[in-house]
Amino acid sequence: MKRSRVNTIMAEAEEMIAQFGFRLPPFAWWSVDEFRAAMPEARRVVSARMGWDITDYGQGDFDRLGLFLFTLRNGELTDLRTGGGMAYAEKLLISRRDQISPMHRHIVKAEDIINRGGAGLAVQLYGSDPSGAFDESAGGIVFCDGIPRVFAPGEIIVLPPGESITLRPGDWHAFWGEGGDVLIGEVSTVNDDLSDNIFRDPIGRFAEIEEDEAPRHLLVSDYDAWLG
């Protein structure tokens, strides 16, 4: 993705988020220079990979296959392993109309996916085989706002604003905006996007950025290169 495209997506996301009365934390608005000046006090933001995240999954077609995310808070994997402390995370996402977040599952993370406003949120579901691999013949059980729901293989559940679905490790899922753009909340166990996303098809988690203009704000995938 070109940096100019990333910057445009950021600006559009800022506008949509504001329309729903949601406010991002202060570090969301730092310029590159402000971020550098805030180090090392901001080391926790960097190590937890909190912040802006825009991906086309390395496929070069964001409008068809992509997702906007902002990680608001993220816990420690060490706390998760020991069963105490900050073992949770929270994100804000935007799925555009018919923009697919591709079929995947998690190894560790359980998550509540919440329609915070806008159009419907379509979630397609499959179960896993005993090894955890994708199984096109497997269904399962999820919880929608605490109520169990049995799903058939490939079933699509459309969540209107205010409703949510709980996905556990091994629940294969893809999602998109149904009939329009949708603002999504995610509340989960500690988030590890570097190793805890297993995609059905061989794609990448992060976009490759072509630098054609200065960043509006840094992406989490920029931190290593831009902040050292």
CATH architecture: Sandwich
Number of domains: 1
- Please tell me what the overall shape is: globular
Q: Round the Cα radius of gyration to an integer and report it.
A: 17 Å
Going by CATH, the homologous superfamily would be: Jelly Rolls
Outline the biggest β-sheet: 10 strands, antiparallel
Extract low-pLDDT stretches: none
CATH domain class name: Mainly Beta
Provide the succession of SSEs. HHHEEHEEEEEEEEEEH
The assigned structural class equals alpha+beta
Note the gap between the termini. 22 Å
Query: In percent terms, what proportion of residues is strand?
Result: 35-45%
How large is the count of helical segments? 5
Find the count of extended strands (DSSP E, 2+ residues).
12
Helix content percent band: 10-25%
Q: What is the third-level CATH name, the topology?
A: Jelly Rolls
Cofactor: Mn(2+)
GO molecular function, one term: isomerase activity
Catalytic activity: D-lyxose = D-xylulose
Organism: Sedimentimonas flavescens
